[in-house]
Structures are given as C-alpha cells and as structure tokens.
Amino acid sequence: MAEQQVKAFNIIYNQLVPVLITSVSIHEAFDPQITKPPDNLKDFRAIWDTGATRTAISKKVVEGCGLVPTGMCRVKTAGGEKDSFTYLVSVFLPNKVCFSQLRVTQADITDADVLIGMDIIASGDFAVTNLNGKTNLSFRIPSVECIDFVKKPPNVVSVGDKELRKVGRNEPSPCGSGKKYKKCHGA
C-alpha cells in the first residue's frame, strides 16, 4: 500500500481572533482517481467549528455551485432538530488540501458560507495557538503525530527550533542589568 502524501496549511491572523475563518473552494463532487481537479472552483468563507459533527453549506453555496440534492437527513442545531438537504461535494481547504467526495448538509450559517465540522477536522492534525497577540491555525492530513503540550518539560518555551528556559520572577534579568527579572523586564 502506498504511503499517503501529507498535505497541510497554516494561517496566521494578525490579531487574536474569537472565530476561525478561512477561505475554501467548493465544487460538485469528483473522483480524483479518475479526473483532475476542476478549474471552475467557487470561493467561499468558512468557519471552523469543533462543536459541529458534520460540515455544512449555505444556500448561497448551493446556488453558486448549482448543486443538486442527493438526499435528506435529520440534523440537530442550536435551534432544534430539522430536516435538511444533503449534497455530495468536493471541498478545497487553503493550500489545495482537498476532500473530494464529502457528504454535507445545507444549513443557515451566520457570518460565513461554509461550516467546517469534525468530519474534516478529525481526519488530521488540527492546532490553534495564540502567541504574541496573533492566532495561528495549522491543519494537516493525514495525522502524523500526537500534539501534546503536557509532555513538554516545565518552564520551557519552544521558539522555532530552540527551547528557552523561562526566567523566574526573582532570578536575575537575562538582559544583564543586575536587577531581578520582576523589577526589570517583568515589571
């Protein structure tokens, strides 16, 4: 069996964000084993939602892509249960990370056109970090490792390929001022 190629993307927002939004492209489902990706992809705004079981699309996506329902299903939403049309689509995440034959439901989505659910998120490695006032979203498929922040040694901060020990408040400041950290850079 051939090893699956790792595909990934990383998005850095220039501020801390309360909602993860990326661009995605949607097309009627195709089989990548038979045909190459289509040229006429439509771009939409997507919210990443770990509380959603499945990926959903809005009426705007259905109409914009000329999608035809493949069936119906019962969905649970914050507003209760309801019947919804289902569609078979290809979803292209940033950097052309593709899910070629994904069953999605139509939903009313606020502030976006697509809701990325756990059917996509759980298929790979998903991490959100917030450093220096910027949110960073990383995703890759297939999953290649367990990201475990607890296993890092205590008082160690990773910066790129380097690991730096955190300075205690009562230790000398690393700048060489001779002051305790709490009276210098920790003030």
Structural class, from helix and strand content? mainly beta
- Report the principal-axis shape: elongated
Beta-strand percentage range: 35-45%
The low-confidence runs, each spanning 5 or more residues with pLDDT under 50, are 159-163
The tally of helices reads: 2
Order of helices and strands: EEEEHEEEEHEEEE
| Alpha carbon gap, first and last residue | 58 Å
- Computed over alpha carbons, the radius of gyration is 22 Å
Q: Domain count, please report it.
A: 2
Largest sheet: 6 strands, mixed, barrel
CATH architecture classification of the largest domain: Beta Barrel
Helix content: under 10%
Mean residue pLDDT: 85
**CATH superfamily caption of the largest domain:** Acid Proteases
**Total beta strand runs:** 12
Give the CATH level 1 class of the largest domain. Answer: Mainly Beta
CATH topology annotation of the largest domain: Cathepsin D, subunit A, domain 1
Lateral arrangement of strands in the main beta sheet: 2-3-8-4-7-6
Task: Annotate the secondary structure layout.
Blueprint lengths: L6 E6 L8 E8 L13 E7 L7 E2 L1 H7 L5 E7 L2 E13 L5 E9 L7 E3 L1 H4 L3 E7 L2 E8 L14 E4 L2 E4 L22
Parallel strand pairs: 3-8, 4-7
Antiparallel strand pairs: 1-10, 2-3, 2-6, 4-8, 5-6, 6-7, 9-10, 11-12
Question: Mind explaining what this structure looks like?
Answer:
The structure is a single chain. With 187 residues, the protein is mainly beta. It has two domains: 7-141, Beta Barrel (Cathepsin D, subunit A, domain 1), CATH 2.40.70; 152-187, no CATH class. The chain contains two helices and twelve strands, in the order E-E-E-E-H-E-E-E-E-H-E-E-E-E. The strands form three sheets. The protein has a six-stranded mixed beta barrel. Strands 1-10-9 form a three-stranded antiparallel sheet, with no helix packed on it. A hairpin with a 2-residue loop joins strand 9 (125-131) and strand 10 (134-141). It is elongated, with a radius of gyration of 22 Å.
